[in-house]
Amino acid sequence: MFMRLLHLSINGEYEKIFSQFYNTIVLPQLQKMEGCKMAGLIKSNSDKGKFISLTLWDEENQAERYEKSKVYENLTEQVSQFLSESSEWKVQLSDDYKLEYKPVPEAPFKANYAVAVKTSSTKSSPEQPSGMYVRIVSVKIQSGMVDEFRDIYSKEIIPVLGETKGCTFAYLTENMQEENEFLSISVWEDKSFADEYEANGRFEELTSKVKHTFSKFYLWKMELEQESKGKVETSEDMKIDNYTMVTGKGFN
């Protein structure tokens, strides 16, 4: 399977309209696309105006065909009206040689992931899963330990997540642009279940099973923290992002 994450920065005054647009225009179009199994719009709980359009496909080439289609071109053109303006400015001369200052819209960027492991689909996906909670954990793995990481995640972590109260789905995805970067994506019925999962120590327990496979830079950082008794930040830290599902739909 193949997962596509399209990151979008939406102007604050258009967030509600954009969500309605995604629900009424984007989802029906994606439902018609060959190979698209699921689509959802998730909103960051910490970064204002930050959204991700998450789509799940049978195969990568089906997602690529969608990106090259007129459907995608038309949707991208319509979405541009909702994008926020960045702090960058361009200076250009008008036809009468007067200076014009134009803010540059913050363009969407996409990341492609191959689904390495997922929970069995024993729990049915709601038709309109708005209000659900999405948790994305990104980790960087040592080159020689990728297979071991996948194996442990598949045999020891995924089964636990599949049985955890409130966890509807869980996926391990591998970044196709950044070498050895993985995302663990879990979808919860609501935030309280994810909070309980963290509070009861289950997340820490599962993380300890694969921590030895994390990048050496990250392992070095943990050693420093133990020595200094303080927090040390690196570019390869395990990162946890939390999102609320605005709208979404599973397709047959």
Give the mean pLDDT. Answer: 79
- Helix content percent band: 25-40%
CATH class: Alpha Beta
CATH topology: Alpha-Beta Plaits
The description of the largest β-sheet is: 8 strands, antiparallel, barrel
H/E series, N to C? EHEEHHEEEEHEEHHHE
Over all CA atoms, what is the radius of gyration? 20 Å
Label the overall shape: globular
How many independent structural domains? Answer: 1
**Strand sequence of the main sheet, in spatial order?**
1-3-2-10-7-9-8-6
The number of E-state strands comes to: 10
End-to-end distance, in Å?
Answer: 15 Å
Helix run count: 7
**Which structural class matches the secondary elements?**
alpha+beta
Your description of this structure?
The chain is α+β, with helices and mostly antiparallel strands and 252 residues long. It has a single domain (2-86, 100-250), classed as Alpha-Beta Plaits (2-Layer Sandwich). The chain has seven helices and ten strands. The strands form two sheets. Strands 1-3-2-10-7-9-8-6 form an eight-stranded antiparallel beta barrel, surrounded by four helices. Strands 4-5 form a two-stranded antiparallel ribbon. The longest helix has 18 residues, at 15-32. The protein is globular and about 45 Å long.
